[in-house]
Every structure is written in C-alpha cells, then in structure tokens.
Design goal:
The chain is an all-alpha fold. The protein has 16 helices and no strands. The chain has one domain. The mean pLDDT is 88.
Length: 442
C-alpha cells in the first residue's frame, strides 16, 4: 500500500488542525470586527464573499499543480514534479497579479454592481476593507501554491505551522489596530494583508528544504513549459471555473439577501462563519484525498485508490457527525458571541441547524468525493455537475424559496440542501462507473 495508517495520520491530522485554526481565527476575526457595529461586520462579510471567490480560484490552480506533482511522485519522477512546481508558481503569480490590478482599478464599480442596494455606511466599510485586502492576492496565491505542493509531498505539518504564524499575526494585528488605534475595518484589512505577506515568505522558506520529496526549482532561471502548464490548467481551470461559479452564485444570492436588511446580512455573515466550522473535518480530508488518490493514479494502482476513497469517506462521515452534533447542542452559545440583535440571532440559529443536519448526511459525498475524481483528472465532469446544480437548484430554488415563498434568508440555506442532494447522485454514479480510471494526465 502506498499509504500506511501512519502516513494517513501524518497527512490528515495537521490538515484538520490547520482547518480548525483557520476557522476559529476567522470566527475571532469576525467577532473582533463586530465590536465596531453591525455595519462594519456586514461590510467585511460582503467583501469576504468576493475574496473567497478569488481564494477558491487560487486554490483551484494550486490543486491543479498538486495533482500533477502527486502523479509524478507516484511514478517516482522527482525531476518533472519539480518542473510542475515551477510552472505552477509562474501561472498562479500571473493570474493573481492580473486580478489584483484589475480589482484595484475597478473596485468602486464592482462593489456597486454586486452590492448596489446596501446602506451607505455598510458600503463605506466594504470599500475600505476591499482596497486593502486586494493587495494581498499575490501573497495569498503563493501561500496556496506552496501549501498544495507540500501536501503533495505528504508534508501537511509545514502549512499547519505557517498557518499558526499567520493567524497569530492576524489576531494580534486586529487587537492592536482595531482596539488600540480604533481603525475599525481598515485595521482588520491591514492585519489580514500583513499575515498573508508573512505566510507567503514562510512557505517559500519551507519549500527550499533540501530534504523535500520535490526538489525546489530554481525560479531565477526562467523556463516556460507549455505542456506542463496545460496539464496543470486541465485540472486547475475546470476546478477554478467550478469554484468561481459556485462563489458567483453565492454572490448573486447574497445580493438578494442584502435587500432583506442589515439583520439578515449579519445573520448570514455569522452563519457563513460558523458553518465553516461545521465542515472542517470534511475540508481537511478532501485536501488529503487529492494527495492520496493522485499518487495512486500516478502509480496506476486504481484498486488502492478505490480502497483509500472508501476509507477516507467513512472517516469524513464519522468526524462530521460527531462535530455537528456538538455544534448543534452549543448553537445558542456560539451565536451569542457575535453581539447580534435578537432578530439576527434567531435567524443565525436557524441557519446553523439547517446546515448542521445537511453536513452530517449530505456534505461529505457532495464535496469530499469529487476531490477523488479531480485527482484522477476528471475535473471537467465535476465542474459540469457543480455548475449545473448551482444554477438549477441553489440559485433558482434560492430565489423561489426566499422571494416567492417569503422565507427570506432561510430559504437560501434550504435550497443549498437540494443542491447537495443532486450533486451526491451524480458524483456517486461517476465514481462507481469507473470512467475516472480512463483519464490520462501524465
């Protein structure tokens, strides 16, 4: 077997701790901003919905590089794995730098286009936070690429330690700038920017470790390999389009939610923060799935790939069930940490309950299993199904339930469960069909 129980433990446990750290610090970030008022937390939440869109695009490109590198490692081809790493950095820096420049120029019309109906004080906070966080895109992209490559080597501990440093910088910066200097959302944005710059630098240092399975390439010697870039993009572009369309759909629904008033925006923001905690184990196992299945496919050991997928799926369901039961029991206490109005607090509790039940029964197959297909270069199928499901079920049903049936923001979260159910049917069929075994990447 390519991965022993000890190998899986060393891969998955740091990933889970890293996800936990990111989520809890993110919750603290939101709570610290919430002391500036609902207008501040609403403005930050709206901008973060755009930032998450870009984060997912960068993560998708990083996943493409990780899949290629993992498959080369499965073939024991360290030289081409190193070349894949080099091409990944060239590609992701080009994309992130271009997006940063475009958003800096178009930031005002973009925010007005997406969130044109929000209150003026919320828009002011959103504009301030957006300007600062856009500058962090290239550093965030470098961090994602480095983390994906280190995970491909089985070294998830490196990204965990770097994430710890980043989050300590972020929280400390928030405390100093928000509480000490009274800078509000500007302080939160500066702390986020500083943490991402430091994180990118630390990950580059770790990539230069001579004991890594993938030798660190010489970036100064420019070498563009179109064939290698195409392999990375064959996974990264469909995954990026899938993630991008997914977040775009959320933005369209958020635009509708923003018309329901500040209480609905705040409840949705708190819901997004706490529901991230609910899917934490699944996200970690999904990241590990890319490394494990990618190595197996590269070595042409499809029986092992199937066995690991089943094992990892059982782990995802087990961890998700235990965690979500605990969260559902503590929902009232958790929403109470955000200083919400009674109206917003009641809606936030409903959101946590709906999402928690879906996380136990639906989420793992809907989001962890497709990572196995992506690792086998079947990313176009996952993209097609995800985009179709998002359009037909989450967006269409979201508008129907929220507007026509008068369910408001709660209708958006109910429609999410319908979307997950459709995805499950399609992804289980695809995996059992074995078509993914016929996809060639390297």
């Amino acid at each position: 077997m390519l991965f022993s129980k000890e190998d899986l433990r060393h891969l998955l446990m740091p990933l889970m701790l890293e996800q936990l750290l990111a989520v809890t610090i993110g919750m603290m970030d939101t709570m610290m901003v919430s002391t500036c008022g609902e207008a501040a937390v609403s403005g930050v939440s709206l901008v973060d919905s755009i930032n998450v869109l870009l984060i997912n695009v960068f993560s998708a490109l990083a996943t493409g590089g990780a899949v290629v590198a993992s498959q080369y490692l499965g073939r024991q081809d360290r030289e081409n794995a190193s070349m894949a790493a080099k091409q990944l950095f060239y590609t992701i820096l080009l994309v992130s730098g271009t997006v940063m420049l475009l958003f800096l120029v178009l930031r005002f019309p973009l925010l007005n286009l997406v969130f044109g109906h929000i209150e003026p004080v919320v828009m002011t906070n959103a504009q301030t936070y957006f300007l600062i966080t856009v500058l962090s895109y290239p550093f965030l992209a470098m961090y994602n690429a480095s983390a994906a490559l280190l995970r491909a080597m089985g070294n998830a501990k490196a990204s965990l330690m770097t994430s710890l440093i980043m989050n300590l910088v972020n929280v400390t910066g928030n405390a100093i700038l928000i509480y000490g200097f009274g800078m509000g959302v500007a302080g939160a944005g500066i702390a986020t920017l500083a943490s991402r710059v430091i994180g990118a630098a630390e990950m580059q240092r770790r990539l230069h470790n001579p004991h890594n399975m993938i030798p660190c390439p010489n970036f100064r010697a420019f070498e563009w390999r179109g064939d290698m870039v195409r392999r990375i993009l064959s996974v990264g572009v469909p995954t990026g389009m899938e993630n991008g369309f997914f977040q775009l759909g959320k933005l369209l629904l958020l635009r509708m939610v923003s018309t329901f008033g500040t209480a609905s925006i705040a409840a949705n923001a708190v819901g997004n923060s706490l529901t991230t905690l609910q899917v934490l184990p699944g996200n970690a196992i999904g990241l590990g799935m890319v490394t494990v299945v990618g190595r197996c496919v590269g070595a042409k050991r499809y029986d092992q790939a199937k066995a690991y997928v089943k094992k990892l799926m059982l782990m995802a369901y087990g961890y998700m069930s235990v965690l979500n039961v605990l969260i559902l029991v503590a929902t009232g206490w958790l929403t109470g940490l955000y200083n919400l109005t009674p109206e917003a607090d009641a809606m936030a509790r409903q959101i946590i309950m709906i999402h928690g039940i879906g996380s136990i029964f639906l989420w793992p197959t809907s989001f962890v299993l497709p990572n196995a297909l992506r690792a086998a270069n079947d990313a176009r199928f996952t993209m097609t199904i995800s985009c179709l499901s998002m359009a037909l079920f989450r967006i269409a049903f979201g508008y129907l339930l929220a507007q026509q049936f008068g369910m408001g923001v709660i209708g958006v979260w109910v429609a999410m469960q319908i979307d997950w159910t459709f995805r499950i049917v399609c992804f289980v069929w695809r995996f059992l069909s074995g078509v993914w075994q016929q996809k060639q990447l390297i």
